[in-house]
């Protein structure tokens, strides 16, 4: 049995206190064996030197479309509907498996470099995304985004069957680092009859469910018009809300919907940068937290962000949460860190996001010796407001070092960039946009 | 006469196009002598290798309190009034010149590292800030923040006299890299009689004017109650608005006030991160731009940000501007880059912010070979949405290289961090907070 000791650092504990401590990892189980005073934690077979930096739980990106890194910067400054219809869907229609391999590898590399060790992902060619998760050593909560809009009945059924089949086949893959989720795309892009047919099948198969909900005002209105109820009440009637369900966005939710989320134990993946960039609106994050809703943080795809840096996202969540609440004390620094670690991990169903005995050994070491992190009044504040992904020095997932001294150990960074550049060029040429 | 050639890069031109070009700098005048095709631009005595990166104008931080880096992370998540009264003013009362030296050096180092070459600064001990500007090689538009609130008549007069004296003495210092500005703190913290006494004196002395305006809703109400008019109409009656005036924030401005700003030629330093973090509100940036108002971008002090990275700020400005306009096409990528370069430079009165013949040779080279900047669909988009301060490789101001390959050449980085840490500790101990 081999052990890894993360030494010489200060550790962010689950209660958001920071203490000088070492972390002993059992690499076979990929879990944390001990955390504590350097004199008391047993020595490991191997060492990872934190160099006085801050050891934090690996950040968890609760909602992503990772292969969309290929779309980064291609079409900005457009509202959601026009952007999807003019710039995204025509290109996605030309997507090939190799594009998703390249986009996912690029995105996962970017996440490891910025301290993210797990992500939730909804896209196509999910076998390829699973392949990259396996290769890169991160965790993924993966599901095919199933959609009926724009499809005939046969195509739609094929899509949903594929979504279920992927989820049943890949659950527990990559030595347990992959969890699978049934992911109908959204309440407006999936016909009611498909929810009625497939949600019971997903529940029977024991699959968690994830979908986009209440992202824009324009998405709420047609549901109210057609079904006579708010989106989440409609979702609840379809048995879409439960403890192993999480929704993306939750921007335009009213008080009754917030209560419904809390009652059902349904988590929300908050995507502040995407919500701002697409002018979707401000999610009432503090109100959701106050009601007892579990809220995680996600970057959404790189097309609407445009990076996958969870440090940016924590900062954005704090900033936007205050504006939404009209209260500078709302969504405070410790809160956004909890959201991006424990909150997101709970949404995805991973026992990660906490540096504590028995939890998954997923962590990142942040170099705190930087001008923008000086003086050190409060490291929790610095994490939320001043640190950035480039301050991450080492990244560990499942007890394995994925990045040491900013060098990626499981992905060839130069090749990932080159391949993504080439695939993007060919893809956009095929799509003629 | 010595020349510096910035070679091997792609240059962001004032019209937001990018072309493969070299930049020849006349170091004596500190201006750009030629920009163009590498085969046509004459060779320089010395070379700075852009390594295929993007050569951009040095970013201009239009509104800062640079020495407040000492407050970074000390008190977060509080509304403006409580934060100022409980956490900032009691500590500022204990400030010594050496604290401002340390805080300014730290902040200027942070700015150079993130590609900022000029800043506007309102604070105390401005001689010390000027000393750091001179030493570091950046540009500063500096003014003492003059305030009557909490002072008796004699103290207030002394403060304003000092503000005028500083402005008259230091204008053109540091080989012209320092411009001075008369800076009454804000419309609510300065008595009307002081505006009546000192604004004419500042105008007579030919000094530009800068003050905080319309930052919070709570600040607008008492002005309307006391003077029967909106803040900027009140300011206009006091002769506070003019072409060489710029206001900070401008969050709560109505349509008539926007027109007034446009008419008078008064610029706005937009501070999106600070406005979000203090839950002050959303400035109507697109509406101001549409009306013809010059809008720059500032970080505000590190206490309410918490970094001085203008890349963060451009991203925030785009994101928040869209939300404020309820329009994803508002405040687009090229717009925020123009704001952070040409807009801010115009507000501060520097002929910087444009890479073009005759302009100040203030520029930064951004390393574009990064995962989060791949693929290269659009470098302007990447600058606004995905690049960060840590991607800056070289920084040049006034024709002098201030950072090469991320190494600061005019400031000892380790010493700056150590000194700031020590001064902050002693300062907060004195203040007993």
Main traits of this protein?
homodimer; 433 residues; alpha/beta; Urease, subunit C, domain 1; TIM Barrel; 14 helices; 39% helix; globular
Write structural notes for this entry.
By secondary structure, chain A is an alpha/beta fold. Chain A has 2 domains: 3-56 and 360-408, Urease, subunit C, domain 1 (Roll); 59-348, Metal-dependent hydrolases (TIM Barrel, Alpha-Beta Barrel). The first copy, chain A, has helices at 80-92, 97-113, 126-136, 153-170, 192-204, 217-227, 231-237, 255-264, 272-277, 285-290, 310-325, 333-348, 379-386, 413-431; strands at 3-12, 18-26, 31-36, 46-49, 54-57, 59-64, 116-123, 139-146, 178-180, 183-184, 209-213, 245-249, 267-270, 295-297, 363-366, 392-397, 400-404, 407-408. In chain A, the strands form 3 sheets. In chain A, strands 1, 2, 3, 4, 5, 15, 16, 17 and 18 form a 9-stranded mixed beta sheet that branches. In chain A, strands 6, 7, 8, 9 and 10 form a 5-stranded parallel beta sheet that branches. In chain A, helix 8 (255-264) links the parallel strand 12 and strand 13 (267-270). In chain A, helix 2 (97-113) runs parallel beside helix 3 (126-136). The longest helix of chain A has 19 residues, at 413-431. The model of chain A has no long low-confidence stretch (mean pLDDT 97). At the A-B interface, helix 2, helix 9, helix 11, helix 13 and helix 14 of A face helix 2, helix 9, helix 11, helix 13 and helix 14 of B.
